[in-house]
Design goal:
The chain has 5 helices and 14 strands. With 227 residues, it is of the alpha+beta class. The strands form 3 sheets. Strands 6-14-7-8-11-10-13 form a 7-stranded mixed beta sheet. Strands 1-2-3-5-4 form a 5-stranded antiparallel beta sheet, covered by helices on one side. Strands 9-12 form a two-stranded antiparallel sheet. The longest helix has 15 residues. The N and C termini lie far apart (50 Å).
């Protein structure tokens, strides 16, 4: 069910009911959609609307989850409209170097055959970019990264693995990402990081958030196991 829209900083946001205690916001923009989503998500984080318990940015939308602190969806929309007069928050994106042992990759043959590039060339390209955390999904803490060079994109595997180790770095289509937990998955694995990005005992449990910046740094297998 679509509700009334609202505007913020010249961007119109379409509002839909996502469930009994959730709204879905979609920006009406053609370009830089991810940037717009991250910017408004940071604003929501900064202003801490009473009753909002979670803010979940994705590639083309933001889900807002609320509790009994807000009577209904309309009251939450009214709070969002009040934000339309607020100044944008200048968010300080985290810049983090993430060590990766590319020697622990599982799918180099597939990557080399598909891209017609040598392993060393793929590593050089992959580790030369600065990536933006686009969203956190499909398992707790999984990091979807925006910014993969098209020359090393590779389709997801036709037959997913039943078990991928925690910390695996993969390429799936035009995205790269990090498996925060051991899980099944269909991305092409090109390495592993010894970093842990998810801890259920902490709040928030994920160490990264949408909009953060990271860069991969190559390490040896010895450094990986000695980390």
């Amino acid at each position: 069910m679509e509700l009334k829209s609202f505007q913020h900083s010249g961007v119109s946001w379409q509002v839909s009911i996502l469930g009994e205690k959730a709204l879905l916001l979609k920006p009406d923009v053609e370009s830089d959609k991810l940037h717009v989503i991250h910017k408004f998500s940071h604003l929501l984080d900064e202003y801490l609307i009473f009753g909002v318990v979670d803010i979940v940015p994705a590639y083309d939308s933001i889900a807002i989850i609320f509790d009994e602190g807000l009577r209904n969806h309309i009251e939450l929309i009214d709070r969002l409209i009040e934000l339309s007069t607020s100044e944008n928050v200048i968010a300080s994106s985290l810049n983090r170097e993430v060590p990766v042992c590319y020697h622990l990759g599982l799918d180099w043959r597939e990557l080399e055959n598909h891209t017609n590039l040598a392993k060393s060339e793929i590593i050089e390209i992959h580790s030369s970019k600065i990536y933006t955390v686009a969203m956190i999904g499909f398992i707790p803490g999984f990091i979807f990264l925006d910014g993969l060079d098209p020359s090393i994109s590779c389709p997801r595997k036709s037959r997913p693995r039943t078990n991928i180790p925690e910390g695996s770095v993969g390429i799936g289509g035009n995205q790269t990402g990090v498996y925060s937990l051991e899980s099944p998955g269909g991305w092409n694995i090109i390495g592993r990081t010894p970093f842990s990005f998810f801890d259920i005992e902490k709040s928030p449990p994920s160490k990264l958030k949408a909009g953060d910046k990271i860069k991969f740094v190559q390490i040896s297998e010895y450094e990986f196991w000695d980390f």
